[in-house]
Design goal:
It holds the Pfam family Proteasome. It comes from Oncorhynchus tshawytscha. One of its GO terms (biological process) is proteolysis involved in protein catabolic process. Keywords: Hydrolase, Nucleus, Protease, Threonine protease. One of its GO terms (cellular component) is cytoplasm. The chain is of the alpha+beta class and 239 residues long. The chain has one domain: 4-Layer Sandwich (Glutamine Phosphoribosylpyrophosphate, subunit 1, domain 1). It contains three helices and 13 strands. It has helices at 56-77, 83-96, 150-166; strands at residues 2-4, 7-10, 15-19, 23-29, 41-45, 48-54, 103-111, 114-120, 126-128, 132-134, 147-149, 174-181, 184-193. A six-stranded mixed sheet has the order 10-2-3-4-12-13, with helices on one face. It has a five-stranded antiparallel sheet with strand order 5-6-7-8-9, with helices on one face. Strand 3 and strand 4 (23-29) form a beta hairpin. Helix 1 (56-77) crosses helix 2 (83-96). The longest helix has 22 residues, at 56-77. The N and C termini lie far apart (106 Å).
Length: 239
């Protein structure tokens, strides 16, 4: 499968997207992840996903609210919402709070018009670009424009996320990927471990010998101290 590279890197929770004619790949590190409580890849509404950087609580709750609103929208209209609808709801919500919600989001998904990729900033501004980076910029240097197979796209996203992990103290742990194609969403968790913990070689302290050997004492200098006279004070509490 040929995937036209439409790439996004996002670090703090780092995410990388490669979007094209047939599908798109999302990726994230797991530094601020706690199971599904704070997930790096949040499904807004199938087949759309959202990745977030910034305050983990803000990104998690923002995507949950929009996911619920999109579900109600789907029940009301009788069809799946388009990715542009999710983008519109997200930027309207963030604009009302004027940046006080610390959620920088990357929204990607497939609809009847094909794949889409949006970057959404905390103040509510959005961009639809062939590739975009948010958060740690080290991942952006890894991305390149071109035509890739699915495996090449996964490898490119993995390398971009690893670059963000190695250059940002706020990112780390595992690398998660999400592959979105027409009618299919595959989560790869974990896809890779960028920096595995090393194994320490622990040793005990040096063992002392059972026999005790006396060491000679060498006197270097003898100095006499003057007698100190401490005057006695009267006890004022005595009768």
């Amino acid at each position: 499968m040929n995937i036209n590279s439409l790439v996004t890197a996002l670090v703090d929770i780092l995410a990388g997207n490669i979007c094209g004619i047939d599908g798109l790949v999302l990726g994230a590190d797991t530094r601020a992840t706690e199971g599904m409580i704070v997930a790096p890849l949040c499904r807004v509404l199938c087949p759309s996903c959202c990745c977030g950087a910034g305050t983990a609580a803000d990104t998690a709750m923002t995507t949950q609210i929009i996911s619920s609103n999109l579900e109600l929208h789907s029940l009301s209209t009788g069809r799946l919402p388009r990715v542009a609808t999710a983008n519109h709801m997200l930027k309207q919500m963030l604009f009302r709070y004027q940046g006080h919600i610390g959620a920088a989001l990357v929204l990607g998904g497939m609809d009847c018009n094909g794949p889409h990729l949006y970057s959404i900033y905390p103040h509510g501004s959005t961009d639809k670009l062939p590739y975009v980076t948010m958060g740690e910029s080290a991942a952006a240097s890894v991305f390149s424009d071109g035509y890739l197979t699915e495996e090449d796209a996964k490898r490119l996203v993995r390398d971009a996320i690893a670059a963000g992990i190695f250059n940002d103290l706020g990112s780390g742990s595992n690398i998660d990927l999400c592959v979105i194609t027409n009618g299919r969403v595959d989560y790869l968790r974990p896809h890779d471990m960028a920096n595995k913990k090393g194994c320490g070689h622990f040793q005990t302290t040096a063992r002392f010998e059972s026999a005790v050997t006396s060491k000679p004492l060498h006197v270097l200098r003898v100095r006499s101290l003057p007698n100190l006279y401490l005057p006695m004070t009267e006890n004022i509490f005595s009768p």
